[in-house]
Amino acid sequence: MVELDIQIPSAFDPFAEAKDSDAPGTQENIHIRIQQRNGKKSLTTVQGLKKEYSYERILKDLKKDFCCNGNVVQDKELGKIIQLQGDQRKKVSHFLVQTGIAKKDQIKIHGF
Q1: Which residues belong to any copy of the SUI1 domain (predicted)?
Q2: Which of 44, 54, 68, 101 has the least CB density, counted as fewest CB within 10 Å?
Q3: pTM (2 decimals)?
């Protein structure tokens, strides 16, 4: 019999880079990603904010400024993640820099 080298494709994990870090919220980079939903719908996720920040208050300000809906999701491995409706990557990045939550070089924007 002949052995074949077959690689089975696995599902794309948008949080694969973040899993390499030690603990949630301790890394210095803030990752802003976009996930495609059905059709033209998309979801923006913000991950890597420090634990001492109030995620609910940040989410409230983001929702009010961008006129979109969102929520905070608790993940076992990644900690708290902010989810927003639509493609809000550049707006979120600008908001985090403007409010002083993060510096521009700490923010990494992923997707498309």
Answers
A1: 30-100
A2: 54
A3: 0.73
